[in-house]
Design brief:
Blueprint (H helix, E strand, L loop, with lengths): L1 H6 L1 H15 L8 H16 L4 H33 L1 H13 L4 H16 L3 H9 L11 H48 L11 H25 L8 H11 L8 H12 L3 E7 L2 E8 L9 H28 L1
Antiparallel strand pairs: 1-2
Helix pairs in contact: 2-5, 3-4, 3-8, 4-5, 4-8, 5-8, 6-7, 6-8, 6-12, 7-8, 8-9, 8-11, 8-12, 9-11, 9-12, 10-11
Length: 322
Amino acid sequence: MMEFFIDTRVMIIVAAIILDLLIGDPKWLPHPVIGFGKLITFMEKKLNRGSSRQKKRQGVLLLTVVVGIAFASTFAIIYFLYQLHMIAGVLVEVYLISSTIAVKGLRQAALQVAVPLAQGNLFEARRQLSMIVGRDTENLGESELVRGTVETVAENTVDGITAPLFWAFIGGAPFAMAYRAINTLDSMVGYKNERYVDFGWSSARIDDVVNWIPAKFTSITLWLGAFFVRGTNKRKAWQITLRDASKHPSPNSGWSEAMVAGLMGIQLGGRNYYQGEVSHRAEMGNSENPLSCIHINQSIRLMHGGWFVFFMILALLWIIFN
């Protein structure tokens, strides 16, 4: 049974991608991330207290419990199902891996901003952007709405697509689910504010570690995929990426954002507001082209090209070395 599991990993991941492209994350299907979120919320209320040292130690406990449950429960389920019947194991593993990636969801989220924006409906575009970013969106104009959306697509190409694919190749559904648990922890407690700076420290650091290779590799595959996208500047993109990626507060997110900015000849980063408080994000890219709605659609095409090349290279390497 386990030989079958190993030999068919590429096909399982292909099926997971196809399933995500077809149905995305329908609300009628149970989603593991919702369960992670509820567990994190419950434990955070119980553990996030005490001194700075205590909070760090209890944050490590949170990380260990959530990721341990994600990995162990996934492994136990698919191992049992493979022993029960090969097809049952494959079907459940396909679904579990598909639940860790969000190709369709990321595209839809971007288009839900782009469509009303193209129609001149700034109110709706602002409302849709507010659902996918943490910044204040009430007073944003067209260029800032575009910037927020493009930054989201660029960053989440890693978090929502290529990194879970990378870990699915490494260790199947258990590793992909463990990655998703880490990423959920970072998105919920990995902030450097007064409440989470100590408690979420370990979650933020582990998220940096598990995204380190996928983020760098994704910048390469975004560049390769750009050969199939019109209007991109491949020649300058690497120069800009190497110049600007390290400016980002995250050691990983800057790589995909800087590459996308370089390929499209736009500038990302700048001034954001969070609950009325100004926050300055380092600027990446050159402002050669004014930001417009067309750049959202172009970022979606770059996202598709990037993850597809990423998958093809990993699949080829898996076949060669296995």
